[in-house]
Specification:
With about 475 residues, the chain is mostly helical. It contains 20 helices and five strands. It folds into three domains: about 10-130, Rossmann fold; about 130-165 and about 205-290, Serine Threonine Protein Phosphatase 5, Tetratricopeptide repeat (Alpha Horseshoe); about 300-475, DNA Cyclobutane Dipyrimidine Photolyase, subunit A, domain 3, CATH 1.10.579.10. Helix 2 links the parallel strand 2 (about 35-40) and strand 3 (about 75-80). Bound molecules: flavin-adenine dinucleotide. Keywords: Chromophore, FAD, Flavoprotein, Lyase.
C-alpha cells in the first residue's frame, strides 16, 4: 500500500536504537507515508541507571545522525508516553504508531495499556518483535508450562527453527511537510558533570549502531576463535563486549546470530556454539522474567525468603568501591566503576563474594549493577544475581562458593587483569598477586605495598566467611 503524502506515522524508538533489522521501520517504509521518528524520555529515565543514561545520550546522538542521512530527524519529547503521544498526534494528525516490543514487566504493562487507549481513540498501534531471537512466550515445556532449567530450554530453542533473517536498513525515510517541535538532548541532563565519572567510558565505548557493528566485526576477526575456553579469562580479548549495544538495541541478537551462521566453516564449531549458547542465556533470562515478573525483587525459590542476610552498610560500600582486600574482587568492581562494564567471570566472583562472603542480600548487588553497568538489563541482571545467590531458577547450588584467590589464580594467572585495575599491586610477583596478605613483608616492601595503607587488608577471612555462609544455608534448609 503506497499513499505518498497522507497522514504521518509515528515511529517510536525505545530499546531498538538502530536502523538495521528494525521491523517497525521496515513497516513504516511500506506505508509510503511521512514518518515521524520519536524518542520519549519517560519519567524515571525509563528506568535506566546512571551509567546507561550516559550511553543513551550518545546513542541518541548517533541515531539522530543516521536518521539525518536518510533525510529524516529524531524528535525528542519527555513525559509519560500516553500524554506525549496524544500531544504529538494532535499536532501532526498522525493516525498510526509503530514500535518494536520490549519485554520488561513495566514496559509490557505500559505498552499494553497504551495500545488499548490508542485504539479507543481511533489510532492504530502496531508492535513488532526484534529485541529477542524468539518471543519469550514461544518456548513451552511438554506440559505447556515455562522452562526453569536452561539445558532443556536450549534444546527446545535449537529445535524450534532458525531465528528470522535480519532486515536491511531503509534507504530513505519520507519526512513530513512540517516538522513538529523537538526538545534538546542536553536539557535531559543524561551526562554526569560534577564529577564526570564517565571520563574513561569514552576510551572504551562507541555507543550507536555503527559502533556496535564495528565491535561485532572486530570480535569475529580477532576474538571469536577460542571463545569457548578463553571467554573465561578477563585479561584476554575473547569476549564480544556487545552487551551494552544489545541492551539498548543498537544491534539485534538476530544480527549476531546471523554472523555465527555466516562464519560456520571458518570458526571452530565449539566456539560458535558457545557464543550461541550465551545468546540463549539472554533469551532464557527473558523467558524467566516474562513468566516471573518479580525476578528482580523476589527470590525465585521461596526457600530463600527466610535467609538471614546481614545488614552491613560498610561491607557493601567497601565492595562497591573495590576495597575488599581481595584483588580479583577489587579489580572487577573498579573495572565496573571506571568503564561501566565487567567481565562475566569476574561478575560471578564479585557477586559470590557479596552474597556469600559478606552475606549481603543479592538485591543490593542487583541494584548497584543496575545503576553502574552500561549493559544493565532487567532480565539478565536479575536472573544472574539469583543464579549466583542460589535462589534462582536453575541456579548454582548455594554451597558452591567461589574462592576469590583460586579463581584469580586460575583465570588471571599472571595477574594482568588485577595489575590493570589495581595498580597499587602492580609490582607484586605473580605468586602473591591474588593474595597479597600471604606475601612476606620484604616482598611487600619491594613492591611498595603496605597492607592496610596502600591496599586494604581483607575485610573478611574467606575460609571463615565460607563456613558462616554454609551454616546460614544449613539453618535455612533445616536439620538434615
Ligand atoms: P559475550 O561473552 O561476548 O556474549 C555475547 C552476548 O551473550 C552478551 O552480550 C550477552 O547478551 C549474552 N550473554 C553472555 N553471557 C550471558 C549470561 N551469563 N547471561 C545472559 N546473557 C549472556 N548481562 C547483561 O547483558 N546485562 C546485565 O545486567 C548483566 N548482569 C549480570 C550480573 C551478574 C551477577 C552476572 C554473573 C552476569 C550478568 N550478565 C549481564 C551476564 C554477562 O555477564 C554479560 O552478558 C556479559 O559479561 C557481557 O559481555 P559480552 O557482551 O562480552 O559477552
Amino acid at each position: 500500500m503506497h499513499d505518498a503524502g497522507g497522514t504521518p506515522v509515528i515511529l517510536w524508538f525505545r530499546k531498538d536504537l538502530r536502523l538495521g533489522d528494525n521491523r517497525a521501520i521496515a513497516h513504516a517504509v511500506t506505508t509510503g507515508r511521512p514518518v515521524l521518528p520519536l524518542y520519549i524520555h519517560e519519567p524515571n529515565n525509563g528506568p535506566l541507571g546512571r551509567a546507561q543514561c550516559w550511553w543513551l545520550h550518545h546513542s541518541l546522538v548517533a541515531l539522530t545522525r543516521s536518521l539525518e542521512r536518510l533525510g529524516s530527524r529524531l524528535l525528542l519529547r519527555s513525559g509519560p508516553p500516553k500524554a506525549v503521544l496524544s500531544t504529538l498526534i494532535a499536532e501532526s494528525g498522525a493516525t498510526e504508531i509503530l514500535w518494536n516490543r520490549r519485554y520488561d514487566p513495566e514496559g509490557i504493562e505500559t505498552d499494553s495499556a497504551l495500545k488499548a487507549a490508542l485504539r479507543a481513540d481511533g489510532i492504530t498501534a502496531h508492535s513488532f518483535p526484534g529485541q529477542l531471537l524468539h518471543e519469550p512466550s514461544r518456548m513451552k515445556t511438554g506440559t505447556g508450562g515455562f522452562y526453569r532449567v536452561y539445558t532443556p530450554f536450549w534444546r527446545a530453542f535449537e529445535s524450534s527453527g532458525e531465528p528470522e533473517e535480519p532486515l536491511p536498513p531503509p534507504l530513505a525515510l519520507p519526512p513530513p511537510d512540517v516538522w513538529p517541535d523537538t526538545e534538546t538532548l542536553d536539557d535531559w541532563h543524561l551526562l554526569p558533570t560534577k564529577p564526570d565519572w564517565a571520563a574513561e567510558f569514552r576510551n572504551v565505548w562507541t555507543p550507536g549502531e555503527a559502533g556496535a557493528q564495528r565491535r561485532l566485526q572486530d570480535f569475529v576477526k580477532a576474538g571469536l576463535q577460542g571463545y569457548a575456553v578463553r571467554r573465561n579469562f578477563p585479561a584476554e580479548p575473547h569476549v564480544s563486549m556487545l552487551s551494552p549495544h544489545l541492551a539498548l538495541g543498537e544491534i539485534s541478537p538476530a544480527q549476531i546470530w546471523r554472523a555465527t551462521r555466516v562464519l560456520a566453516g571458518d570458526v571452530r564449531v565449539e566456539d560458535l556454539t558457545s557464543l550461541r549458547k550465551e545468546l540463549v542465556w539472554r533469551e532464557f533470562s527473558y523467558h524467566l522474567l516474562f513468566h516471573f515478573p518479580e525476578l528482580a525483587r523476589r527470590n525465585f525459590s521461596e526457600k530463600f525468603d527466610g535467609f538471614p542476610w546481614r545488614n552491613d552498610p560498610e561491607g557493601l560500600q567497601r565492595w562497591q568501591r573495590g576495597e575488599t582486600g581481595y584483588p580479583i574482587v577489587d579489580a572487577g568492581m573498579r573495572q565496573l566503576w571506571r568503564t561501566g562494564w565487567m567481565h562475566n567471570r569476574v561478575r560471578m566472583i564479585v557477586a559470590s563474594f557479596l552474597v556469600k562472603d559478606l552475606l549481603i542480600d543479592w538485591r543490593e548487588g542487583e541494584r548497584w549493577f543496575r545503576d553502574t553497568l552500561v549493559d544493565a538489563d532487567p532480565a539478565s541482571n536479575a536472573a544472574s544475581w539469583q543464579w549466583v545467590a542460589g535462589s534462582g531458577a536453575d541456579a548454582a547450588p548455594f554451597f558452591r562458593i567461589f574462592n576469590p584467590i583460586s579463581q584469580g589464580e586460575k583465570f588471571d594467572p599472571d595477574g594482568a587483569y588485577v595489575r590493570k585495575f589495581v595498580p597499587e599491586l602492580k609490582a607484586l610477583p605473580d605468586k602473591f598477586i591474588h593474595k597479597p596478605f600471604d606475601a612476606p613483608l620484604p616482598v611487600l616492601e619491594d613492591a611498595g605495598v603496605s597492607l592496610g595503607k596502600t591496599y586494604p587488608l581483607p575485610i573478611v577471612d574467606h575460609k571463615a566467611a565460607r563456613e558462616r555462609a554454609l551454616a546460614a544455608f544449613r539453618g535455612l534448609a533445616g536439620p538434615s
